[in-house]
Write a structure and sequence with these properties.
The chain is of the alpha/beta class. The chain has 2 domains: 95 residues, 3-Layer(aba) Sandwich (Rossmann fold), CATH 3.40.50.720; 35 residues. A 5-stranded parallel sheet has the order 3-2-1-4-5, with helices on both faces. A two-stranded antiparallel ribbon has the order 6-7. Strand 4, helix 3 and strand 5 form a beta-alpha-beta unit. The mean pLDDT is 93. InterPro entries: Met8-like, NAD(P)-bd_dom_sf, Sirohaem_synthase_N.
């Protein structure tokens, strides 16, 4: 079990390796928290292209190469390629940043939580990386409760 921590991401570089569905979900969760999100991927999900065109994220249209993670305060490996994700893990282990490797919780030093929020209230939910459906359902229930109690 891990201790929950809330981190100020304003003005911090968040590097996302990969431009597919997992990257999209994580980027959508991160956007309200103000980090400078840079995606490194040869192609982007169409919704990520929209975010790029609106100036909400940066995009380096290329394959990941060693050294790409160096400026990252937080790095997310969101590819379906185990070799790339493992390479990101090795690089980020050396640069002392927050890292989440989507296909291997053991290589991550934080879990990407479910987020329920309204106004100034932010709740992070995890099932310790073991049951994503449970975490998703709990997140949904807490979000409904926040809406019901009228948090501002």
């Amino acid at each position: 079990m891990r201790f929950p921590v809330f981190v100020d991401l304003r003005d911090k570089k968040i590097i996302v390796i990969g431009g597919g569905n997992i990257a999209l979900r994580r980027i959508q969760t991160l956007l309200p928290f103000g980090g400078e999100i840079i995606v490194i991927a040869p192609n982007l999900h169409e919704k990520l292209v929209d975010l790029f065109n609106k100036g909400q994220i940066g995009w380096l249209q290329k394959e990941y190469t060693a050294g790409d993670c160096k400026p990252g305060y937080m790095v997310l490996a969101c590819t379906n390629d185990r070799t790339v994700n493992y390479s990101v893990y090795l690089e980020t282990k050396e640069i002392n940043c927050y890292r989440n490797i989507c296909d291997c919780k053991e290589e991550s030093n934080f879990y990407f939580p479910g987020i329920a929020s309204k106004g100034e209230v932010v709740v992070g939910i995890t099932a310790s990386g073991t049951n994503h459906l449970l975490a998703k359902n709990v997140t949904r229930k807490i979000q409904q409760e926040l809406e019901t109690i009228g948090v501002v």
